[in-house]
Amino acid sequence: MATTTKTKILCSTCQKAAGVLTCPGCNNAFCSRHVSEHRQQLNRQMDEIGANHDQLKQLIVEQEAQPRCHPLMEQIDKWEQESITKIHQAADDTRKQILTIICTHRAQVTHNLAVLTQELSRARDEDDYVETELNEWIEKLDQLKIDLNAAQAMHFDQDDSKTSLISKIYIDNSSMSTFYQTVGNVQITDDGKIVTHGTVNAYAAARCTRGYSVGQHRVRFKIDYLTPANSFSCGIVSKNTPIESIFNNTINCNAVLAYQQATAAISMYNTGYAPHLQGFPQPMHQIQPSLPGISSVLNHNQVFSFHTQNYNFQPNAIYELLIDCNQKRIHLTNEQTRQTEVVNVNVAQCAFPWQFFITLLFANDRVSLC
Length: 370
Prior knowledge:
Number of strands: 16
CATH architecture of the largest domain: Sandwich
Coiled coil: 39-66, 106-154
CATH superfamily of the largest domain: SPRY domain
Keywords: Coiled coil
């Protein structure tokens, strides 16, 4: 008869005595001596877990009592103070900018008034004046009042960039600008805000009163009516440069003469064919004489501008000219299409202070300051 041998499971602790109990948690067998020892070990682990639990609970209570005790809080506080300092500095700089603009503007008006005062005193002392001079002085006084009150038209604006947490502020003094001086067939109306070309096609220009020497300045304008795109330009010219020098006088005179001759030829042969032009294929009344574009007659040695060669002008569009005296350049932006171009200015050719100017060519073209 065969005998069956049963394998004895040893205690996992001593590996000598037979295991009398198997732990369901670790699946190890223990002898009678080490069963209680294993249980005590489990009890100690349980006590450690309880202690860690109580410690974590206490830590939560402490953090709830002091919610700002976080390492990032100190960094945020530092960032906040630095940002506040930058805001204060930006506000102070803007206030100084306003005061500089107002003082410079008032000084210019005061100077112009002093010149007028001398004229009035001289005329009164010599008893030498007539109606035309009286009307001229009245117009000058009215213009000085407009110029003085123009400083009140400045307004506060912000650069609401989506990439910037805090918008940058600046003073928009573009509304202080007014046209005051012209050359050619244009008229200034609406207290210096509108320039309109006359009824005869010819080169003409107008420039604004304000002069710019330091900082950044914005001039906003709208092209209300424009015949072809090559009939307009805008930019800056030195205040010391006569307005007549905006154009190249030689080219200008030749072009106007050619235009006048062509116009006279059309009025003479407004129907039929030109008898002196053999083989001319079409009736003369269909011929429209044209002047060269504005860009070809500008005096580029003294003006820095945007014209048909470097910008695409559109009627009924609003533009902003940024005059950056510090960087010695000008930026022109179409506010609708956002087309922006930059022209660097050579101060050796165009000395400070700079003045904004526009040129027009065709009848009824009109530009207004915004």
